[in-house]
Amino acid sequence: MIKPVARYLIYLPANLFFVALAYLLAPVLAAISLLTGAQLPGALQWFSTLDADLDGGVAQGVKGYKADLSGWRLWWQRACWICRNPAHGWQSELLGMPADGSVIVRQAISDTPKNQWYVMETAKGVRFFCWKRDQPLFGGFYLKLWFGWVNKSYDGRNHHYAFQIGPQKP
């Protein structure tokens, strides 16, 4: 497991750079989308998510996302979507691990607290991992922790790089 952890740590600065850049560019990218449509052109879409366009919150039924918006409200909703899913394209295409032929080598899952550990291997024998934990806090809140590469390929091509620490309420 030394190589996968080392690879993860080497990729971390690039991931933090692209996530920060996605937050900074979100207003500009949302403005571009008003001219080009909900799917940003080319690699610009990499600043958001690859498995949905910038109106993905509507299609997925995410609370607060509304259909048939225009103007400033549409711009704001799309900027918020980019910030909700910052740099997922970069995390998948540049920092991700190929999904085709990848297998789970080992997994451990527990419910209290919710904890998941996966060791996976690409078709070429390269190992990678995913660790997810929902650490209970107080008042029904928990701390969502995701490190490694997501065990599920959302775009069907790659397991995207994950570095997520955030309070959540179920």
Structure, explained:
This protein has 170 residues and is of the alpha+beta class. It contains four helices and seven strands, in the order ααααβββββββ. It has helices spanning 2-36, 56-59, 71-84, 88-93; strands spanning 97-98, 103-110, 115-121, 127-136, 142-149, 158-159, 161-168. Strands 2-3-4-5-7 form a five-stranded antiparallel sheet. A two-stranded antiparallel sheet has the order 1-6. It is globular and about 50 Å long.
Which stretches of 5+ consecutive residues score pLDDT under 50?
none
User: Tally the helices: what do you get?
Assistant: 4
What is the β-strand count? 7
Inertia-based shape? globular
What is the helix fraction of residues, given as a range? 25-40%
| Strand arrangement across the biggest beta sheet | 2-3-4-5-7
Query: How does the helix and strand content classify structurally?
Result: alpha+beta
Q: How confident is the prediction overall: mean pLDDT?
A: 94
β content, as a range?
Answer: 25-35%
Question: Mind sketching the topology for me?
Answer:
Layout: H1 2-36, H2 56-59, H3 71-84, H4 88-93, E1 97-98, E2 103-110, E3 115-121, E4 127-136, E5 142-149, E6 158-159, E7 161-168
Antiparallel strand pairs: 1-6, 2-3, 3-4, 4-5, 5-7
